[in-house]
Amino acid sequence: MSKIPFTGKSQQARQQRVVSTDPLAPAQAYNPEHPLMEDPDALAMRLVESEDFVRRNKNVLLGLLAVVVLAVAGGFGYYLWRNSQNEKGQAAMFQAVSYWEADSLQKALKGDGRNLGLERVASEYGGSDAGNLASFYAGVAALKEGQYKAAIDYLEDFSADDYLVQARAYSLIGDAHLELNQPKEAADFYNKAANYNANEYFSPAYLLKEGTAREVAKDYAGAITAYDKILTAYPAAAEANEAKQYKARAEGLSGK
Q1: Is 17 helix (H, G, I), strand (E, B) or coil?
Q2: Three-state DSSP class for 107?
Q3: How confident is the model over 227-241, as pLDDT tens digits?
Q4: CA dihedral in degrees (199, 201, 206, 211; nearest 10)?
Q5: Contacts of 58 (CB under 8 A, 6+ apart)
Q6: I need a labelling partner for 208 at 20 to 30 A (CA). Which of 14, 80, 90, 141 fits?
Q7: Quick one: three-class SS letters along 168-213?
Q8: What are the tens digits of pLDDT across the range 104-113?
Q9: Eight-state DSSP code of residue 49
Q10: What is the per-residue pLDDT for 89?
Q11: CB 72 within 8 A of CB 109
């Protein structure tokens, strides 16, 4: 019986002998961790299988590729469009902000016939940073003009990464609700402002407003809780003295 020749394609070639650096130690069989790197036949077979898979699923793969390309192109296009909208929105609101700073609030909101007002900028450029900022300016202007429902709508459309500005927007929404004789809703927004990245500089003032709004709503227990938080969390705040007085008043009204 003839023997199988010892070649690179045989099992013996794939189980090579590793010689130890210690001449007295027995040689050990070595099984390669990645047989494709050692066996050309196995590698060729794998390539054939891959080509066959691509040939059989060509339409599916092309469809997936088209989806990826469209997604990338769409994302890049949206990025360019949003940047363009932001630049146009900033230019459009420049005059409106000038009117806002000068307290010409009607012109700031409605425009002057040549330049857009904050309402139009917020509407037409709502997906941009400029449109978002226009919502804040429009909300403040509407609040000052006594348009409380509109102020709430604009300020609720606004969002900011800056925790001071966002907390301020919540507080302004509370002011609008209070003007609409909705003290409970006002108190909830003051509480939201106080607890949005709470800090010793602004939170005490928001808590004081929350307490007074809860008193108007006859929620004396809630008012006492708000005043207590000032006294315990911010005892050095300028609002602490008022909080003590208001707490005593709320306790008296609650019958405590």
Answers
A1: strand
A2: helix
A3: 999 999 999 999 999
A4: 90
A5: none
A6: 141
A7: HHHHHHHHHHHHCCCHHHHHHHHHHHHHCCCCCCCHHHHHHHHHHH
A8: 999 999 999 9
A9: H
A10: 85
A11: no
- If you count them, how many residues does the chain have? 256
Indicate the helix (H) or strand (E) that contains 16. Answer: strand 16-18
- Residue 14's CB is within 10 A of a number of other CB atoms, namely 15
pLDDT above 90 as % of the chain: 60
Give the span between the Cα atoms of 15 and 32, in whole angstroms.
Answer: 8
User: Across residues 40-64, what is the average pLDDT?
Assistant: 64
**Nearest Cα to 161, choosing from 202, 186, 132?**
132
What is the average per-residue pLDDT within 136-162? 96
| SS3 of 73-104 | HHHHHHHHHHHHHHHHHHHHHHHHHHHHHCCC
Nearest Cα neighbor of 138 from 85, 89, 84 is 89
Return the structure tokens found at 222. 């809630």
Q: What is the DSSP letter of 226?
A: H
Q: Is the pTM for the entire model greater than 0.85?
A: no
Sequence-ordered alpha helix ranges (H) in 36-162: 40-56, 58-101, 105-110, 118-124, 129-144, 148-157
The owner of tokens 């023997």 is: 3
Q: Is the pLDDT of residue 176 over 70?
A: yes
